[in-house]
């Protein structure tokens, strides 16, 4: 991070947020004032405190004192609640900022539907209008910046950010955090909804690729073929890619330490299907794949890596074989 002194905040310290906040702490330079973090369950903030972060009691405390605040929350409901609901919300903190602090920028990195992104953004901007303007005349801003990448990418600062919002909010977020947490960023449009929709496009592809891979692995097993050999051939073919290489090996071993969990992938497919319905675009492949992720959740695999969707396909293959 570069530029003048800045107070940076982070809301949500789950499997992704904790790694992202750690990157912000590691990037602190002599011109930085520090990083303030918050999480609903306070215990998850303690490792960040040990690294030098200040731990806040509420989201409002973070937005009332920090110049740029990032949020990484599990779903649309959490994104709305943390940002907008009650006296402890991020919006409440923005409204109560001291006039000496100037404007704040709120950056939501959560994967949400377009309506949620628009609602949170509108609430943030309304609150910002009640605060003092900065030297450039701005009164703060909102940027939707959902990410592509798992927790290891977050740990290594290799996330990709798909951003929607004003140029000024994009510049503030880039200067004070995005470039510390990721390798690439795009301003895909002027609206938070643009970023939300762009992220869902990637999630559709990712969920379907891994679902197709799981189907192939279940067929391979049912056919009595060696899974390692089939994966090796796949890796040398025109269809080879890093995603199928990594997830195929997890499926072969039947071990699913979470990088991106089943419940999150299924949530994203659900949001994508809602968007497809709104737009009147058929999405039969995504609908079928979503059903298998739902089944994996019903099998108790919601917290496992989303490659565990293979278990849903294996169950069907086994039942079909038994019925023959």
Q: So what's the CATH class of the largest domain? A: Alpha Beta
- CATH architectural arrangement of the largest domain: 3-Layer(aba) Sandwich
Largest sheet: 9 strands, mixed
**Order of helices and strands, N to C?**
EHEHEHEHHEHEEHEHEHHHHHH
- Tally of structural domains: 2
Helix content: 40-55%
Family: Belongs to the HIBADH-related family. NP60 subfamily.
InterPro entries: 3-OH-isobutyrate_DH-rel_CS, 6-PGluconate_DH-like_C_sf, 6PGD_dom2, 6PGDH_NADP-bd, HIBADH-like_NADP-bd, HIBADH-related, HIBADH-related_NP60_sf, NAD(P)-bd_dom_sf
Pfam families: NAD_binding_11 (PF14833), NAD_binding_2 (PF03446)
GO molecular function: NAD binding; NADP binding; oxidoreductase activity
Q: Care to describe what's here?
A:
Strands 1, 2, 3, 4, 5, 6, 7, 8 and 9 form a nine-stranded mixed beta sheet that branches. α4 packs parallel to α6, α9 (about 190-220) packs across α13 (about 285-300) and α12 packs antiparallel against α13. The chain has helices at about 15-25, 45-50, 60-65, 75-85, 90-95, 115-130, 150-155, 165-180, 190-220, 225-235, 240-255, 260-280, 285-300, 310-324; strands at about 5-10, 35-40, 55, 70, 105-110, 140-145, 145-150, 160-165, 180-190. The relative contact order is 0.10. It starts with 6 loop residues before the first strand and ends with a helix. It has about 325 residues and is an alpha/beta fold. It has 14 helices and nine strands. β5, α6 (about 115-130) and β6 (about 140-145) form a beta-alpha-beta unit. The chain has two domains: about 5-190, 3-Layer(aba) Sandwich (Rossmann fold); about 200-324, N-(1-d-carboxylethyl)-l-norvaline Dehydrogenase, domain 2 (Orthogonal Bundle). Keywords: NAD, Oxidoreductase. GO terms for molecular function: NAD binding; NADP binding; oxidoreductase activity. Belongs to the HIBADH-related family. NP60 subfamily.
